[in-house]
Specification:
With 139 residues, this protein is mainly α. α3 packs antiparallel against α4.
Length: 139
């Protein structure tokens, strides 16, 4: 699994949701904190792909949004009083970051299929065959 894949931060965020559901809020805090560098690497890789001219608009928007939401969730958890309930904004931001990562998969599934270009043995694309124009004879 490459660091550019959104699967690592998504998996860690899902683990944080599971930890919250099990009442292990301190573990969930550390999992959210752990997901931030992975999310930053994913967003940075998407920005690099955009700089190279690839069509990654959905991926860069979703990964940047997920990174921001993970930071919000972590900040809200860090500022919560010890022993108090987890702030609603922390859980909402965490779930929204998961939705952002899942949106990448949904966009990938719904993208229009591009027709395959014929490729020669050397790897260059073949030019489409053009019929020669019929010559007109002046009599």
């Amino acid at each position: 699994m490459a660091v550019t894949s959104p699967l690592l931060p998504l998996t860690i965020a899902l683990g944080a949701v599971a930890a919250d559901g099990g009442g292990l809020h301190r573990l969930a805090f550390y999992l959210v904190l752990l997901a931030i560098p992975a999310a930053a690497a994913t967003a940075l890789a998407a920005a690099g792909d955009l700089a190279e001219g690839r069509q990654v608009t959905v991926r860069i928007c979703c990964t940047a949004a997920a990174l921001g939401l993970l930071v919000i969730s972590s900040a809200a958890r860090a500022n919560a009083p010890e022993g108090a309930a987890v702030p609603a904004i922390a859980i909402s931001a965490l779930v929204a970051s998961i939705v952002a990562y899942v949106s990448i998969a949904v966009a990938w599934l719904l993208r229009p299929e591009r027709p395959a270009q014929p490729v020669t043995a050397a790897g260059a694309q073949r030019a489409p065959a053009v019929e020669p124009a019929p010559e007109s004879r002046a009599a």
